[in-house]
Specification:
single chain, about 350 residues, mainly beta, Immunoglobulin-like, six-stranded antiparallel β-sheet, 3 helices, 22 strands, about 10% helix
């Protein structure tokens, strides 16, 4: 049962990975009509982003918890991310979120034509997105952005929505963050970020609005990323990633081997614990769909669902080694996780 479930999910992931994972950014500039209060709230965040290095307000806890990098078909890299807010600091859950990306060392390009906003020339950024939303009870907000490979500075700002009561003081928190985005379009072996997950399941494809709020749903595969990589012995370590730049055989099939080995961190140092059987993805592998074709843009998935019942409580390192047998090249990434008793 366990093997069949992993095989089915892996085959589905190989198919969804060939679709444009960054599609949710296509209508990011289609801004609906805003009320006067909403326009004022948006203007506050945009002006703060324009301040370029001046003191930024931090009136409630706002933290960047994690992000991942996955190739999108449009030549960009899709970056799902998770923010942590503290709802106890916010009387209302209604907020506006603003995310801007500026490429380091490159001046923002002027817009096409002579469009202006007031007396200001409209400036186009690699990413510039404003969204009104309700903060969930746990304070976790997951969204995504899409960028070309390179070095960026991100501006992330959240402001409570204003009301008709002009005497109310609404809180604002913002921060800047550097982001180094990998370029997965290069013709070389590469691995996406390894997503350490609390769970993964097949779902129906989401509508665009729901997709924006669920950036870790890859068309028909919903992933619940772990924020702390901590597991109970009764659970399973779940990993998901994609392999890029694979050399095809004559039938446009891959010949890739993925090895997972586990190392326990002890007071006296790290010690090898165990490993899984090699995971082989080739023309005869049941983990790839029958119509898998590298020339059609299909991508090689990597997936692990490892029961942790035999793992003593403690800290571990999982070494993930990907070998492209046809090119002879290999890559290694490491994932740290904890097993609680």
């Amino acid at each position: 049962m366990f093997i069949r479930r992993v095989t089915a999910l892996c085959a589905a992931i190989a198919v969804v990975a060939s679709l444009p994972l960054g599609a949710q950014d296509e209508d990011k500039k289609d801004t609906p009509s805003l009320s006067k209060a909403e326009q004022q709230d948006a203007r506050v965040l945009i002006d703060l982003a324009d301040s370029m290095g001046e003191a930024l307000p931090s009136e409630f806890p706002l933290t960047w918890r994690q992000n991942h990098f996955v190739m999108a078909q449009n030549g960009q890299t899709f970056i799902p991310f998770t923010l942590q807010l503290d709802p106890t600091f916010l009387p209302s859950s209604a907020v506006v979120l603003y995310v801007r990306a500026v490429k380091k060392g490159v001046a923002a390009p002027p817009p096409e034509g002579d469009d202006k906003k007031g007396d200001e020339m409209m400036v186009e950024y690699p990413w510039d997105n404003l969204e009104f939303l309700d903060v969930p009870a746990d304070g976790l907000v997951a969204r995504g952005l899409a960028l070309s490979g390179g070095e960026y500075e991100l501006f992330v700002g959240v402001k409570e929505l204003s009301t008709e009561n002009e005497e109310e003081i609404k809180k604002t928190s913002v921060f800047r963050r550097d982001l180094s985005v990998p370029d997965f379009t290069k013709p070389e072996l590469a691995i996406s970020s390894i997503i350490v997950a609390d769970g993964m399941e097949g779902v129906e494809a989401l509508a665009p609005e729901a997709q924006r709020a669920n950036p870790y749903t890859f068309v028909t595969i919903k992933v619940t990323p772990s924020l702390d990589s901590k597991y109970q012995q009764t659970s399973a370590l779940t990993l998901l990633f994609w392999v890029y730049g694979v050399t095809p055989d004559a039938m446009q099939k891959p010949d890739v081997q993925i090895d997972f080995s586990f190392h326990q961190k002890l007071p006296e140092g790290e010690k090898y614990f165990n490993k899984t059987a090699p995971q082989v993805l080739n023309a005869t592998s049941p983990m790839l769909p029958a119509g898998f074709d590298l020339s059609a843009g299909h991508l090689v998935p990597g997936m692990l669902n490892m029961p942790l019942g035999s793992f003593p409580p403690g800290d571990y390192r999982c070494e993930v080694r990907v070998t492209d047998k046809l090119s002879g090249k290999s890559l290694t990434q490491n994932v740290a996780f904890n097993v609680a008793g």
